Amino acid sequence: MKVIELAAPRVDALHSCTYPDPVPGPAEVLVRLRAASLNFLDIAVATGKYPLNNFPIIPVTDGAGEIAAIGAAVTDWTVGERVIPHFIPNWQDGRMPTAGGGPRRGIDLPGSLAEYVVVPAHSLVHTPAHLSHAEAATLPIAATTAWRAVRTAGLGPHKTALVLGTGGVSLFAMQFARAHGARVLVTSSSDEKLERARKLGADEIINYKFTPKWADAVLRLTDGRGADLVLETGGAATFPQSIEAAGLDSTVFIIGFLSGTEVSINVVPVMERRIRLQGNNTGPVADFADAAAAMTAHGIKPVLDATFPMDQAQAAYRHLAEGGHFGKIAISIP
Ligand SMILES: NC(=O)c1ccc[n+]([C@@H]2O[C@H](COP(=O)([O-])OP(=O)(O)OC[C@H]3O[C@@H](n4cnc5c(N)ncnc54)[C@H](OP(=O)(O)O)[C@@H]3O)[C@@H](O)[C@H]2O)c1
């Protein structure tokens, strides 16, 4: 099969080669991949920011396709079904089995830049009927994480979500928050991206470059109450203001460190406003399946910024690393 291999932790070490076709074991499924999608994690792996010593690897955590063959013990899936393998295949539900959740696709297991992959049958989720393979490939990490943020915060009518930036997780969180009846505030460094977010349903938009004290804007736009969910993607540069922008009994859902990991915060407002600081590391197959079901029920489509052909994988990685994207970046697999 044709594969894009990552030979070393450098984007220019992505190269085309041929591997033997994998064969499914009794409880496994062979998936003919049709698309992959990038996350910040894939950039970290391909730039040495994520410590790995198992190169060469088949990279990219997220992908989608259709079942090409099933193992002898698989009874609940059939050849031809459109599927999305989860990125942590053995985290089924509930608590994480280990600190990292177990082996992950595109890191310690074969990833999505390949024509075929073998995965455990229990790691599959049905592709929502209204989504293309490229759209479906964007779901595992970003939609699962966004879904958990919205559910953990208990969003609903009369509640407000604040999502930082217009990356993949933030836009999914905006869509899920709206589907729960909540109001959504979006920040971005770009007015053009903010206008796009407004067209997608953002109720209020804040340019964090032009409004460096964006937490004050959040308080103003919520009549002083603050947000019930803050999707904290920024880390060092955003965390203190995320606390300022968080309301009474709110959740600051900590998922990223785009601007650094070390922060100093005042604990008093955390105590006084009973703010829950909730860390997260993606989620299990069950949450992914719930997120996909919600997308079907509400007709939610991922926001696809661009789709690159597989032989231009390096360009796709660079596009994400440059940060000009709005939403998700896909790679089509012929
Ligand atoms: N722990 C988890 O469960 C989990 C799961 C998924 C992702 N993550 C992490 O969450 C972060 C976001 O993931 P993603 O896939 O959505 O990333 P992404 O698609 O690359 O989006 C990143 C966006 O964040 C915004 N941003 C960058 N620096 C910022 C800053 N200082 N303040 C506010 N916004 C800033 C930018 O939006 P604008 O261009 O609009 O300014 C940028 O486009 C990454 O760090 C990723 O590793 C964690």
Automatic annotation (TrEMBL):
Signal peptide, first to last residue: none
InterPro entries cross-referenced by the UniProt entry: ADH-like_C, ADH-like_N, ER, GroES-like_sf, NAD(P)-bd_dom_sf, Zinc_ADH-like
Xref: Pfam families: ADH_N (PF08240), ADH_zinc_N (PF00107)
GO molecular function: oxidoreductase activity
Domain Enoyl reductase (ER) residue range list: 9-331
Highest taxon of the lineage: Bacteria
Protein name per the record: NADPH:quinone reductase-like Zn-dependent oxidoreductase
